[in-house]
Amino acid sequence: MIERATLGGLEFEYDTETKTIRMAGNPAIFIWVESTLAGLISGLQRSVGTERIRLSLHGGGRDGVDQDWAYICQFPTFEQGFAELTKVAAVFGWGGWELVSLDSKAQVARVRARNHWEADCQKALGVSWGSSYLGGKFAGIFQRHFGVPQCWAEQTAFASKGDEYDEFVIRPSDASLEDRVERLLATDEATKADLAVALERVRKEVEERAETEKELREKLDLIARQEEAIRALSTPIIEVWDGVITLPLMGVIDSQRAAETMTRLLDAIVHKNARHALIDLTGVEVIDTSTADHILRLVRAAELLGAQCVITGIRPAVAQTMVSIGIDLSKLVTLASLRDGLLRCMGGARAGGARPRSVDRGV
Known about the structure:
It contains 12 helices and 14 strands. With 363 residues, the chain is α+β, with helices and mostly antiparallel strands. The protein is rod-shaped, with a radius of gyration of 48 Å. It starts with a strand and ends with a strand. Keywords: Coiled coil, Phosphoprotein.
């Protein structure tokens, strides 16, 4: 169902089925000026800044006059066509327009507008940016009338500031809208503000990243200390008698752990002036060629410092593996248990004149 009404000679149609409105056959909408429209314009201004929204609105008005110009051209003279256009504009909510003066030879026009939506929006918001969209529309119309590449509408009166009307002086301009936008982007405060915001965001991101890196370094340092503590616990070196130290090995012995173990054992031999080192394999359940080679290197390194090594606690399965893979044990002193090794070393220490001590120290 189509509902129709006529206002100011223009026909309005409302389609109750599709919920759409047409004015003079064109799709249209009705919108609250002081709330919805004002809110839309205000949101755009906050996003891009006053100067850029002024230029954007001016460009939008300039580029949207094709139908206005086509309507003007239906009449014998420009003045007549513009006068008829003002009647249509008023019905569409663009207020009352008045062509105050027109000098086609000098290419200067003066136009006034009263009670139009753009000024009403700014009054509702309590601001005064100027009626740039309406000014752009006038610039587009007179650009065609003067037959020049571009015109600029300079606003000389502001209804949003309390004047009776908005007034515009329109004349050709050497600077295109695009030139003005380009200059604005290079110098305007909005661009500087955008840059400041971007720099502040970068600064915060750098600070956050630095803080994150600091936390990660602290966690890595903690992990390193924990690993060092775990390594120390996994390869404890204990002085069990004067000149006798013991090194219990447990778990899998890889290249890194073997190197760390050798360093700790050799340091302990020098620090404790040890003549005997018990290497206990009770905690080693599986052995391979690489592990056996690490143990042999450990024994030879200790002997170079003058300490005799005794291997204790070899499990039956480990012993079978060592024999099957052909490890030469002829130069190693091996005993069944740590107790046997300790008794042997204590006997050797006593024979060497060492005095027993009852207090053990860990390294």
